[in-house]
Amino acid sequence: MNQDLTVGRPENVLWKFCLPLFGSIIFQQLYNIADSLVAGKFIGENALAAVGNSYEITLIFIAFAFGCNIGCSVIVSQFFGAKDYNGMKTAVYTSMISSAVLCLLLMISGIPGCRGLLSLINTPEQILTDSQLYLDIYMWGLPFMFFYNIATGIFSAMGDSRTPFLFLAVSSTVNIAVDIFFVTVLHMGVAGVAWATFLCQGASCILAVTVVLRRLKSIRTTGHIPLFSLPVFRKVASIAIPSILQQSFISVGNIVIQSVINSFGASVIAGYAAAVKLNNLVITSFTTLGNGISNYTAQNMGAKKPGRIKEGFRAGIKLVWLLSLPLCLLYFFAGRWLLYLFMDSPTGTAVQTGILFLRILAPFYFVVSAKLVADGTLRGAGIMKRFMVSTFTDLILRVVLAVLLSKTALGATGIWCAWPIGWSVATALSVCFYHNGPWKNVKHS
Asked: Which of 38, 97, 108, 222 shows the greatest Cβ crowding within 10 Å of its Cβ?
């Protein structure tokens, strides 16, 4: 059901809205975790390395879908908060049409270019064929990923975080079962892992789009609703393009880092592939909570209630820090047993690589989570230039330091050390930018 985020006690409203989002991203990440888990446990270490290696390239395409989600969600939130339902519907239709065109262009350019990208990042020969196979199947599922992201962005914009959670809970659970069936019963190998994700994401996409269109139809409006509006497209693009650039550059940076990691061999790649999935589960969860804060901020900006934004920021920090504590302790002290979930016959190098990666990064979850809350607030208010500055600072530091430190006596350990440095500097910038936002001198909601 739709929820107005501009009324009620901010902390209660935000937590009620964000907690289902957190549950949703847990299930969303189960798609990728299930792929790696099944590949590592039922096929082998090379299959795990192949799926993990391909994942860094899939993040480029996820970046575009994520940007479309954010652009649509923020603008629809602003219309919804201002009670302009005609404008809201036009924003939805405009976002869907423009996203479909973008998705088509990505498929045309991406399908024939997968092998070239894999060669570019120094993919070892023993995992090249499986990496390409996984990517080829993944590319055909891009429309499902794009329209599912648009649908969830619309649900969130209207204050409904429960419906997408239910879709994901069912589809991701089914995905695990189908993964195992395709690999262990049909013996499809890495292709089985990819096709399982394709089918389950497709089902969840169709359900989500169907429900969101019915939800929109139930909202009463007057007069003609344009299916496409250039002014609305510009508004959506002003949020979506910086978000796409942010995620794309992060993905490119991750690919550069992956190419450095690939020079250390298949065992290090496998250890990193397992550990980075666990790390991405946390970071993506915080990012999704940041997206929820963007919706909250955008609705309140549309309703001209900047005082509630300050209260929402404080509530968001409290929420992510409460989540950071158990996750930090779990990864730091129980990382070895979590990594074993992905590996059937793990080598010592793979396991030690994963453990070290998690122990270096986990204590800094408190830092990066604060950045993502501040980023979500800035993005919801449309303050995109400052948002981009902190994001690129983090990315540039991590990539440059990963390359430089990997060439020292630290070796692969130097790569892992680049993360906390980039996070810390960028968090300081994001929090400073937040404190100088348009709500700076507002004292009451």
From this structure: 38
